[in-house]
């Protein structure tokens, strides 16, 4: 992880990063915002791990696809640090120095080139989060998205166990992250912490869970649960 030492260097580099995204993303230059560090990490994609440029600020984490290292990037993504939960992961045979980045909208695995860099990234993110907690009230009710199972990790649908082919394609359930076939993921459901306005693809198991949750929520909102409790109370009397 590369770090900057002076305030002037910091302001200059933040502006460079902001201008390096094409098409332009959100404005990154803001009062009291500090670029804590930057570097390239491998991020879990749908089919494989892909190298992305990551920029850690004192309040947000920014990443994007690399067009030219340290000069041009695309597909700017911004995650508020208050919405991130880190989970350390053990090394696998294929991927080393990995951890899980959990957020409400999307969770994904990342890996660093070395163990030391992994620890540096995790430590600096947690230090920035600790500083934010001194200034902001933490959100204790965050729901985090499940990380997607990579395509290559599933040769069969993880619900009906039918083998994937060129015609029986892979899809992802947005709620559990499983790789499923089209037949097992025809339903759509609203998952508020991912996108409260859009109906998302879900597998048949999660679809049932979502419908049950909607029914329970509707009963609660209409006072049905309280009504049931009052009836039980009157019967006891």
Question: What's the structural blueprint in terms of helices and strands?
Answer:
Elements (H helix, E strand, L loop, with lengths): L6 H14 L14 E10 L4 E9 L2 E9 L3 E9 L4 E4 L9 E5 L5 E4 L3 H19 L37 E2 L6 E2 L7 E3 L8 E3 L2 H18 L2 H13 L1
Antiparallel strand pairs: 1-2, 1-7, 2-3, 3-4, 5-6, 6-7, 8-9, 10-11
Describe this entry's structure for a reader.
Helix content is 27%, strand content 25%. The longest helix has 19 residues, at 115-133. The strands form three sheets. A seven-stranded antiparallel beta sheet has the order 4-3-2-1-7-6-5. 20% of the residues are buried. The protein has helices at residues 7-20, 115-133, 204-221, 224-236, and strands at 35-44, 49-57, 60-68, 72-80, 85-88, 98-102, 108-111, 171-172, 179-180, 188-190, 199-201. The protein contains four helices and eleven strands, in the order αβββββββαββββαα.
Low-confidence stretches: 225-237
Helix content: 25-40%
pLDDT averaged over residues: 87
Named CATH topology of the largest domain: PH-domain like
- The rounded distance between the terminal residues' Cα atoms is 67 Å
Secondary-structure element series: HEEEEEEEHEEEEHH
Put simply, the count of helices is 4
β-strand percent reads 25-35%
CATH architecture annotation of the largest domain: Roll
Total tally of structural domains: 2
């Amino acid at each position: 992880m590369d770090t900057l030492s002076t305030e002037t260097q910091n302001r200059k580099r933040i502006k460079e990063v902001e201008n390096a995204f094409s098409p332009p993303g959100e404005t990154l230059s803001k009062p009291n915002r500090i670029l804590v560090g930057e570097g390239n990490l491998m991020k879990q994609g749908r089919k494989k791990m892909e190298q992305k440029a990551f920029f850690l600020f004192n309040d947000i984490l920014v990443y994007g696809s690399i067009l030219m290292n340290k000069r041009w990037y695309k597909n700017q993504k911004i995650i508020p640090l208050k919405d991130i939960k880190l989970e350390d992961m053990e090394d696998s045979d294929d991927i080393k120095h990995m951890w899980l980045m959990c957020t409400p909208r999307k969770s994904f695995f990342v890996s660093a080139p070395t163990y030391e860099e992994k620890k540096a990234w995790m430590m600096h993110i947690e230090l920035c989060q600790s500083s934010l907690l001194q200034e902001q009230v933490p959100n204790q009710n965050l729901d985090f998205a499940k990380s997607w199972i990579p395509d290559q990790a599933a040769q069969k649908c993880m619900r009906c166990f039918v083998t994937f082919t060129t015609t029986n394609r892979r899809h992802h359930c947005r709620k559990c992250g499983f790789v499923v076939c089209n037949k097992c993921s025809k339903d759509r459901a609203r998952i508020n912490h991912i996108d409260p306005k859009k109906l998302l693809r879900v597998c048949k198991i999660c679809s049932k869970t979502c419908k049950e949750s909607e029914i329970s929520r509707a009963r609660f909102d209409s006072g049905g649960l309280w009504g049931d409790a009052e009836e039980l109370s009157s019967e006891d009397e």
